Amino acid sequence: MQISALQKARYGYKAKLPLILRGKIGEIQAEYGEKTRSEGQEEEIQKLFPNTYGMPVVSFVKGANSITSKKMKVGVILSGGQAPGGHNVICGLYDALKNANPENVLYGFLGGPSGILEDKYIVLDDGIIDSYRNTGGFDMIQSGRTKLETQEQFAVCTEVCHKHGIDAIVIIGGDDSNTNAAVLAEYFKAHGEDICVVGCPKTIDGDLKNKCIETSFGFDTACKTYSELIGNIERDANSARKYWHFVRLMGRSASHIALECAIQTQPNICLVGEEVEAKNQSIDDITAYIASVVAKRAEKGLNYGVCLVPEGLIEFIPSMKVLIGEINDLVAKRAAEFNAKASMAEKEAFIESLLTDASKSVFRSLPAGIRAQLLLERDPHGNVQVSLIETEKLFIETVKARLAEMAKNGEYKGKFSAQNHFFGYEGRCAFPSNFDADYCYSLGYNAVLLIANGLTGYLSSVTNLSESADKWAAGGIPITMMMNMEQRGGRQKPVIKKALVELDGAPFKYFEARREEWAENTCFVFPGAIQYFGPSEVSDQTTKTLALEQGKALA
Ligand code: FBP
User: Fold this and answer.
1) Ligand 1: distance of its center to the CA of 205 in Å?
2) Is 205 a catalytic residue?
3) Nearest-CA neighbor of 448 among 48, 94, 14?
4) Cα Rg of the chain (Å, integer)
5) Which amino acid residue places its CA nearest to atom 16 of ligand 1?
6) Pocket lining: 81 vs ligand 1, CB cutoff 6 Å
7) 3-state secondary structure 440-465
8) 3 state SS for 89-118
9) Distance 273 CA to ligand 1 centre (A)
10) Each residue of 468-512: pLDDT tens digit?
């Protein structure tokens, strides 16, 4: 297979481990903290996890340990959307396993969680591992969105583990996959199975974080990739001076990606879903805001600009949230009738006839394209797939109409010509930045220590991430500690609390204090491409979000 010069060079990159994880595995000791409590609804969660609730936080420190060098077999699963660095988690797992005992075996289940259910796997070896070091993508073993959540599925997992003699499963996934990892860990314990389950925090969306998990992997590289592209567009806008660019950015729900990219590139406008919800803003309110910025810039002769739109925004607009909720319900409950409709027009008419009056009028007010996108296939949870809804085009249309009205009243005399973009898949499989390469390798390496210590129901945790890698701390967080109860699919379920953008958090405050200036003036920043080699201050930077959250001043 032909490989690029960069890929070849990246094979040679030595991912950095925290000092504590360097050296022999037999010289790293687990230190146990206090008993832990769940994020919310303690009683219910304790009842659901009688065997794994309340376990202590674990930190690794130097010292002799009692880990035996018994041969271990571990299975790894990649779950959900791709995120840069996934391969390095597997490389870290592999290297730590081989460091502990060269006879240890790592099974890679193929195609996501369905791989274990169908017993489809490969045994990873030096040849495979070495050809994926520091590369993007999940193609080493592929990913999938099957959920491991039923007792029947857990029974199959048990059978497959018995068949191969697997001692532990590592699930690399987001909040839902790690919630399910905890449920599987509890199932194994309850059934007297000596099989550990350890999770690793993955998602470009950046919404799997809390006081114990500082960031999910992939967020860093994805944001840097999008910011490079946004910077390029800003430079194009600044050169041609004739277009407003509307850029939608991935992020299933939370607006972390859009906010980080805004801090990196200083566009004229960045919408933040969480703020829209807090201020109870409608499509009209958002349109009025964007149009006012366009008009102010036009007064200065600046008929161009850049506006960032998080893909999850649509569900934060209160009236849209209600409408989408109603459609999700109808598509699920009246599935047979809905699916029997031959054309999109018939589907639309069918759904519209069943909506409440308020949602009916919101639905009718939407452009035809958006109405159709709201009816497209649901995700495995029965939710609308926001990545398919072209919110940026919606706002281009509504802003255009608004400006035409304003022009009639003499409130606007500019020219509005817009281009739309969507950045999502472009960033999910990029070569991991040095930060993600190091962080992921450390997460995988650390997961083996958790397993070797017999810990189950834990998330691999590497912290102190705004410092250089040698100063990072390593340990494990009981997954139940991050849980609360939420309404999902019509019933209360234990889930890891999703981290949304905090409006009183440092990243939003930083943005809020500057956005007016960025709106009216042109303050674009061009971050350029991710640097993999060169001075540390260029190639080892963290995200601005992480730096601000950890009290660091931005350079
Ligand atoms: P995960 O939460 O599984 O990491 O995936 C996140 C994400 O990349 C979202 O940003 C996006 O909305 C979604 O996946 C797209 O899903 P798909 O890959 O199935 O099109």
Assistant:
1) 8
2) yes
3) 94
4) 24
5) 81
6) yes
7) HHHHHHHHHHHHHCCCCCEEEEEECC
8) HHHHHHHHHHHHCCCCEEEEECCCCHHHHC
9) 17
10) 999 999 999 999 999 999 877 667 899 999 999 999 999 999 999
For 137, residues 6+ apart whose C-beta sits below 8 A from its C-beta are 82, 86, 87, 429
User: Token pair of 363, please?
Assistant: 């639905």
Amino acid at 460: S
Say whether pTM exceeds 0.70. yes
The catalytically annotated residue of 176, 205, 207, 436 is 205
Determine the Cα–Cα distance for residues 318 and 286; give it in Å rounded to an integer: 12
Interatomic CA distance for residues 453 and 26, integer angstroms? 11
Distance (Å, rounded) from C-alpha 506 to C-alpha 546? Answer: 10
pLDDT band at 386 (very low <50, low <70, confident <90, very high): confident
C-beta 84 within 6 A of ligand 1:
no
Q: Which domains does the chain have, with CATH numbers?
A: 27-218+432-488 (3.40.50.450), 222-311+390-427+498-533+541-555 (3.40.50.460), 314-385 (1.10.10.480)
Tell me the CA–centroid distance for residue 80 and ligand 1, in Å: 7
Q: What's the pLDDT tens digit per position in 59-92?
A: 999 998 777 678 999 999 999 999 999 999 999 9
Q: Is the pLDDT of residue 364 over 70?
A: yes
Three-state secondary structure readout of 272-336: CHHHHHHCCCCHHHHHHHHHHHHHHHHHCCCCCEEEEEECCHHHHCHHHHHHHHHHHHHHHHCHH
